[in-house]
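User: Predict the structure for this protein chain, please.
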Amino acid sequence: MLWFQGNSMQFANYSFKLFLRNLSASRTVLPVLTLFTKDPCPLCDEAKEVLEPYKNREVDITLPENSAWYERYKFDIPVFHLNGQFLMMHRVNISKLEKQLQKLEQQGTGS
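Assistant: Here is the predicted structure, written as structure tokens:
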């Protein structure tokens, strides 16, 4: 599992921006990264800080309308979904995120 430090974060930020530019150029719908969280959650706060440049959607599982997500993830936050599908939990795994984003890009371009 890769955790962000120094140049790794800069590289991840550059890679994601390049990916988004390529998707925009191909008129593909941008992927949605969803973070399931609750308060307090130091790991969630850390993940939000790292992922701020990519912020798309956040679901507070403690809200009444999200009770199903609370039952599912109350002991596993933060949890990340990409386009509605489970991606990872607990820590940001940038290599896994980038791999999935590359798959989406290839699907979008018909490669």
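The domain at 33-108 is CATH 3.40.30.10 (Glutaredoxin).
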